[in-house]
Here is the input.
Amino acid sequence: MKKTSDRVEIVIVGAGAAGIGCGVVLKDLGIENFIILERHQIGASFRRWPVEMRFITPSFPSHGFGLLDLNAIVLNTSPALSFRKEHLSGQEYALYLETVAEYFQLPIKTETNVKSITALPQGQGFVLETSQDELRSRSASASLRSQFVIWAAGEFQYPNLNPFPGAQLCIHNSQIRSWTELEGNEFVVIGGYESGVDAASNLAALGKKVKLIDRQSSWLNSDSDPSVSLSPYSLKRLKMAYGIGRVELIGERQVKAVKAVTKGYMVESESEQWLSSTPPILCTGFNSSLQQIAPLFDWSNGHAALTREDESTLTPGLFVVGPSVRHGDLIFCFIYKFRQRFAVVVNAIAQRLGIDTTTLETYRREGLFLDDLSCCDNDCVC
Here is the structure.
């Protein structure tokens, strides 16, 4: 093993939508002394989606009329225009991110794992310990020093695998590469929000019978906030599967445990039981990637406390972008939400570096610089 050291002004952790998006804003301001570290490959979380999974937010090439594609992370780009599709697959979106990264020549170091982040005293910056596989035969470690850190790690790689006793007997939807690989004709899906509906719809499309169990009844929620109610895309698919009798909707039931029995698996709520001959499918969401660096945040309110510029209230110089950003009840859990905060974070860093931020006025005009949250009042239960 060999060890090297280096120094940059800014380190971005994660080369997904948030990390790539922030990198482009830095480039637009002429900031070059930064690096993006990615544990796997660009868009790794999207590449790990089941092959049948699609974006629930529709892409549409409307930027010519002043409206940015909902899934675009960069001005004057449109995944819909690139792929001629409204609902992209994870692989397609990863290719979009790769194309953006290549066009802007972003400094990305893949196959690099951030093992730890240490904040230096008196605001002197950070030391990041990383490791990288070289030629699959040896591992190189590095100590990287930076003035600022932007945490842009996604959440798909941190599934909630233990929501109740016996969850280890189940298969989390993030562990599915393709729904065609599952053997059996009848399934129980636990969790009725977007991922649960996606699982049920895909299984039904394969001719399977599905019991969809939800602690509420997400399919009945008509709230205008898309973070609370099902997207029209998911609801349409569920209605089709339900209409042909392949999906049974079981709402207002909280699963308390799953047990192995002679004929398969018993899924239990407080008052009912459902027998499944196949491992139940967990669609119970994901944990925040911020748990990897939890000591660097104040968690007294149940989530990582951030300033109005998405900086840790406990560790100056550490910023967060992506679905882990939360301000009160407002969670930026979709791309079209959290992309509005890239310029906010970069603006704060640029000002401290004494860099002119006039260029970011374009972001504000295009709806990509949301620094006034008084107009936002959504509750998210992703």
About this structure: The chain has two domains: 2-157+287-375, 167-282. The mean pLDDT is 92. The longest strand covers residues 138-151.
